[in-house]
Specification:
Strand content: 25-35%
Number of helices: 7
Structural class: alpha+beta
Distance between the termini: 80 Å
Number of domains: 1
CATH class: Alpha Beta
Strand order of the largest sheet: 1-7-8-9-10-12-11
Radius of gyration: 21 Å
Helix content: 10-25%
CATH topology: Deoxyribonuclease I, Chain A
Order of helices and strands: HEEEHEHEEEHEEHEHEHEEE
Number of strands: 14
Largest sheet: 7 strands, mixed
Length: 359
């Protein structure tokens, strides 16, 4: 009996140590957190009535398009685990070239890696800011995947992935909104992504601040209500901003097809990722979208494709899953998805919108 008691105490101690270790190496964000803002003291302030060019881009941690990663396809043909460091460096330079060519006022970026084993522990936030230089004096970011070590055999190392918002204009404050987490066993959930919305407040002279929201919703959520929950959380936040009288814009990778979109257009391997009725319908029905659902389902829909999957069989962009929505008082002057020079940079294409602030 004494021996069994000792064994039981030892096992309890080992379990406790394991729980403590997992807790220490993984990320546990609060539902709402203030984020640090880095901004030069002399950064200019937005003015009523001015035009603002916004670029949104899921940059796929600068991996380029030479790989089909282990999570990319359902048929098991994705054999790559991480990009070569030289490819990341090359892709980063190509990304910077596109940004300098477009000269956006604001960048909303997803899948920016920091200290991740898969990208050679590169601090991509620092490298992007260094590459863009003093023309972009303000930035804020928020993790949505972070762990010192992930025991999944496809990872086996550290992860660090951020939402990053960069601006030519002053950012006054920033907050991170936690989104619902995919249901799974309690241990796996500690190591899984913690999807979020990054809110940045840009002061406007003699008006309420412009609120810019940067997000990346879940993927691989089939068989759960995760996407419904996350879309509802986005909707609630936008309605709250409307109630407060704020002008706002949200953009990002929503990982959802347009309402009414025919999934049979996709390769058979990819249809499983999406529901018959897209969960994003409520955002289209209640808010302004840069491109309406009718156009996204029309004969020119390919002009607005934003996703170019990593695949051995798909050779060009084939769907829209990234979007911009904006408040009633913002006037959209232009919107396009840039293909020129971007098809080898990421599995997503940059969306570029030009808006006029109310006077």
């Amino acid at each position: 009996m004494k021996a069994l008691k000792v064994i039981g105490i030892s096992l309890a101690g080992l379990v406790g140590l394991l729980v403590l270790t997992i807790n220490l190496i993984t990320y546990h964000p609060d539902p709402l957190e203030d984020m640090d803002v880095q901004c030069d003291a002399d950064a200019p302030e937005l003015q009523p009535g001015q035009e603002l060019k916004i670029m949104n881009w899921n940059v796929q941690y600068m991996a380029g398009k030479s790989y089909v990663f282990w999570y990319d396809v359902t048929d098991g043909s994705g054999k790559d685990y991480e990009p070569e460091y030289a490819e990341v460096e090359k892709t980063l330079e190509e990304f910077l070239r596109i940004v300098k060519d477009e000269k956006p006022d604001v960048l909303l970026l997803q899948e920016v890696n920091v200290d991740a084993k898969s990208t050679g522990y590169m601090d991509q936030v620092a490298r992007i800011m260094e590459g863009l230089g003093p023309e972009y004096p303000c930035q804020t970011s928020a993790y949505y995947w972070k762990s010192d070590f992930v025991p999944d055999p496809n990872v086996l190392g550290s992860v660090g992935m951020k939402l990053l918002t960069i601006s030519r204009y002053r950012i006054e404050s920033a907050r991170r909104h936690q989104l619902s987490i995919m249901p799974m066993d309690i241990v796996s959930q500690q190591f899984y992504l913690k999807r979020a919305i990054l809110e940045a407040s840009l002061p406007v002279e003699d008006r309420k601040p412009l609120v810019l929201l940067n997000t990346h919703l879940d993927a691989f959520a089939q068989g759960t209500d995760t996407m419904q929950k996350q879309v509802a959380e986005v909707r609630d936040l936008l309605l709250a901003l409307n109630e407060e009288g704020n002008d706002w814009l949200i953009a990002g990778d929503f990982n959802l097809l347009p309402p009414g979109w025919d999934r049979s257009q996709l390769h058979e391997n990819d249809r499983v990722y999406y529901q018959e009725e897209s969960e994003i319908e409520s955002l289209f029905s209640e808010f302004n979208s840069s491109v309406d659902a009718e156009t996204l389902n029309g004969p020119n829909q390919s002009r607005y494709y934003t996703h170019f999957p990593n695949s051995h069989v798909i050779k060009e962009p084939d769907r829209t899953i990234d979007y911009m929505f904006f408040s009633a008082d913002l006037e959209q002057l232009d919107y396009r998805v840039r293909r020129d020079g971007t098809l080898t940079i990421s599995d997503h294409l940059p969306m570029i919108g030009v808006f006029r602030l109310p006077r």
